[in-house]
Design brief:
121 residues, five-stranded antiparallel sheet, Immunoglobulin-like, two-stranded antiparallel sheet, mainly beta, single chain, 1 helix
């Protein structure tokens, strides 16, 4: 197996670890308002050096009242991953208590990306 193929497999392993790691988050301000955030997908599932991929995030209301003024922010990015969208997304209101929003982030690994764990917060 050549070194380039080995690095591709290592990056694939890293993103598999990210998917199985902490993939959901929630925020509750009272019993009536609740928001869940979950990583829905990383596509393609096999990512190599200097390749583009997308990260899909699902935001859903889980309370009895529709939440307002939601801010979703990516606060920590490894230096060998480039994100083309804004890191902060503001959602004025999830209209209904069962509303959902889907965010998609387009990303690319750099030409000198390191194999190993990559955590995006």
């Amino acid at each position: 197996m050549n070194q380039h193929t080995r690095l591709i497999y290592l990056l694939l392993l890293v993103f598999a670890v990210i998917l199985t790691g902490i993939s959901t988050a929630g925020a509750q301000t009272s019993g009536e308002i609740c928001v869940n955030v979950e990583v829905q997908e990383i596509s393609p599932s096999s990512i190599g050096i200097d390749e583009e991929f997308t990260l899909g995030i699902n935001i859903e209301s889980c309370g009895s009242k529709a939440p307002e003024d939601i801010t979703f922010e990516i606060i920590s990015i490894p230096s060998d991953i480039i994100i083309t969208e804004d890191l902060i997304t503001k959602i004025s209101k999830l209209t209904y208590s069962t509303s959902e929003r889907h965010l998609t982030y387009h990303m690319r690994t750099t030409t000198d990306a390191n194999p190993g764990p990559h955590i995006i917060k």
